């Protein structure tokens, strides 16, 4: 199915890029056929006409001026007088759309609201747009290059296309940013994405309205993490809530969660030993995701795992990673192998085996920034990893045709070599749409359902997130936002999971009770704002609840719900890559 979609896209791309040349070629063909038809027609009548007479009559076919001659059995002329007006009509339509494209787009955007605006067209944003359209969302695409090959496919899906510089306020106004529901800055340049987000935020802050989420694509994983941290603790008084997305972090998180590298085999003294071959953003993200997974299961997996970083600059990259994520050493021991993936030393593959001939690594990740290096490394390793039974993942920005051809034709020889094309994962659009806030909100809902089921109670709300009403979804999001308000009230903050922190965080009993009171006050305010009132029984239809009272008047079991919500905060934050810290500890570390 994927190949079929790709073939259709290739045809659309070919037509979009060469449509005027194709139309001109068709017109020339019709001229030739028409000329032959008219020549035969006048020969049959015994009339002598000059070359230029017949040429002029043929041209007139395009404007319906010369085709009304009675002919029979003259296939070329019949074909020409049908094709010529069709070509004229299509050409006129193209010209009309070209001349009035801005006016037509403005007309479609005039009364548009509640839509999503996607800035920048590339492979990732194209998959996102397709996903949004499938969800029934109205989509506006802003792209500076009118010849971008994804435009016809987006137009075909029903998206509104705005051609212009998204950094300029005029373009943002054309895209009706003021009445939008969500913005996605998905270009390839981090600084440009940030500039668009800043300008859109400034424009939105000038008008009142509902909050607007703005997702910003940041290619550097560490920078993305720090921006997310800053946004989480930011005082959110304006209309815009920023989320930050990193393809490498999202892809590596998916890969590590889908395949348990630590269960792949522990032939190295009980400590899993992994190899990350290649350098750059994906290598960094895979290491961080592995460490996060190991840390989450440390109760079941004491000690550390071992990871070797292999590339021509492995020593410097390891040093940089430990400066950015100093707590990595709490989870793993890092070795370095100073060898490039395209070097002769790599091709010797002596690094795969120990002295006794057994495999040295349980899992290998090939993930350089250069796809050609990854392909060369994959071909070098395919035979030895199959012989040693080492599961190997080769990660590509765009999967090379040679890799697809070889792995498709001989699956048996490639059973231990698995390929991953970063932007092709169907989960990526969903990860972009969610963000940290949504991740926390869904985790809060999931925890509430689990607590209800464990207590033997029927949950009063739907189990699945997509079945929730917008009010309940917003309630979970509001609770996620309020986590950081609560932490600030007890002189706590957050830090990335792999920053060095003096000790594991735990709330005191007094803090739990204080924050439980804050949580119930937040819930009361939210319910009143949504039209709920006090009632003896909970009634969704009439919006009554017996718990719309002060905290001290709540039954003990309901107080416990608020306490549990507080106690779970550190665990919830870990799902997003952060931990709770006391401000005094953060200053001293």
Reconstruct the topology from this structure.
Elements: H1 2-45, H2 51-60, H3 75-99, H4 101-109, E1 116-119, H5 123-134, E2 139-143, H6 151-157, E3 160-163, H7 169-174, E4 182-185, H8 190-205, E5 212-217, H9 221-233, E6 240-245, H10 247-258, E7 273-277, H11 281-296, E8 305-311, H12 314-324, E9 332-338, H13 344-347, E10 363-366, H14 371-388, E11 391-396, H15 401-409, E12 417-421, H16 427-454, H17 470-489, E13 492-496, H18 509-529, E14 533-534, E15 544-545, H19 556-567, H20 569-575, E16 578-582, H21 583-588
Parallel strand pairs: 1-2, 1-4, 2-3, 4-5, 5-6, 7-8, 7-10, 8-9, 10-11, 11-12, 14-15
Antiparallel strand pairs: 13-16
Helix pairs in contact: 1-2, 1-3, 5-16, 10-11, 10-16, 16-17, 17-18, 18-19
In CATH terms, the superfamily of the largest domain is: NAD(P)-binding Rossmann-like Domain
The CATH first-level class of the largest domain comes to Alpha Beta
Taking the alpha carbons of the first and last residues, their distance comes to 53 Å
Structural class: alpha/beta
Tell me the β content. Answer: 5-15%
Write down the overall mean pLDDT. Answer: 83
Tally of separate helices: 21
| Poorly predicted runs | 1-7
Give me the side-by-side strand order of the main sheet.
Answer: 3-2-1-4-5-6
Tell me how many strands there are: 16
How does CATH name the architecture of the largest domain? 3-Layer(aba) Sandwich
Radius of gyration, taken over Cα atoms and rounded to an integer in Å: 31 Å
Q: What shape does the CA trace take?
A: flat
Helix percent reads: 40-55%
Structurally, the number of domains stands at 4
CATH topology of the largest domain, by name, is Rossmann fold
Largest sheet: number of strands, sense, barrel closure = 6 strands, parallel
